[in-house]
Amino acid sequence: MHLRAILITIFGVLLMSIETLFMKITSIDALTFAFYIGIFMFLSLNIILLTTLKKKTIFIYKVNIQPILICGALSGISIVFFINAIKTTTVANTVFILASAPLFSAFYSYLLYKEKSKKNIYIVSFFIFVGLTVIFFSQLGSGDMRGNIYALVSANLFSLYFVVLSKYNEANRFAIIAFGGLIIATISFFLASNLLIDMSTLMILLLAGLLVVPISRVLISLGTKQLPASEVSLLMTLEAVAAPFFVWLILREVPSDGTFTGGFIIILSLFVNSLYLLKVSKNT
Known about the structure:
The chain crosses the membrane at residues 33-53, 65-86, 92-113, 120-141, 147-164, 176-196, 202-220, 232-251, 257-278. Keywords: Membrane, Transmembrane, Transmembrane helix. It holds the Pfam family EamA. This is EamA domain-containing protein. It comes from Arcobacter nitrofigilis (strain ATCC 33309 / DSM 7299 / CCUG 15893 / LMG 7604 / NCTC 12251 / CI) (Campylobacter nitrofigilis). The protein is mainly alpha-helical. The chain has one domain (2-283). It has 13 helices and no strands. α2 packs antiparallel against α9 (173-191). 52% of the residues are buried.
């Protein structure tokens, strides 16, 4: 079951890494993109619920109302900031900053549930902080700084989402992500300056909103049923490698030297920590 949960999460993360490419190839602004993604997420996941559960769908929402409201809101708002970050700065900047999620997961786990992290998490957190500092200070005064801040907020909310969700193992993940889509659409509707799009953009948004975004979020959320929040966050670092690669391959977007250096520090520290955790698990 543990291996299956890891594979499900990895597939979800790889799908999530493709999202950034969809965001970059469209010319519409971040909030317009977010609005349609949110609408399509909400519709597609509720169609799945109605098809599989039929009349039980309303019951699912009633029974899971607390985790749906809390986790759905955290998920939705984090995606809004994530899309804004991708549209404002480079993909590499965004995903390297999002790779700092284990640091925030450890913090929120202790703050909310008094779960103390092991010594290795504190060591990794130090190097993550160093990497983040390099990325931010290398771009002081540049237009990328606003995008970096968006990414940092998204990383915080995403980590908090995983930590809270890990306490609701029985909550329906489809309903949570569907409500998150509604949150995305609602926020974007009131803040977007223009919601008009052309047909080619609509096709891209349909593919992203009906399939890629909701499926990736559901798969990653399902992983939290068998995996601790910190382990899920560690698996999320795969996106930090895959997303910039896909965007470079198609769009030839090259990150700055500071982003490369800071990102390398973050990814290396997380990779070494993963090897350590694997060794510990084999010895127990």
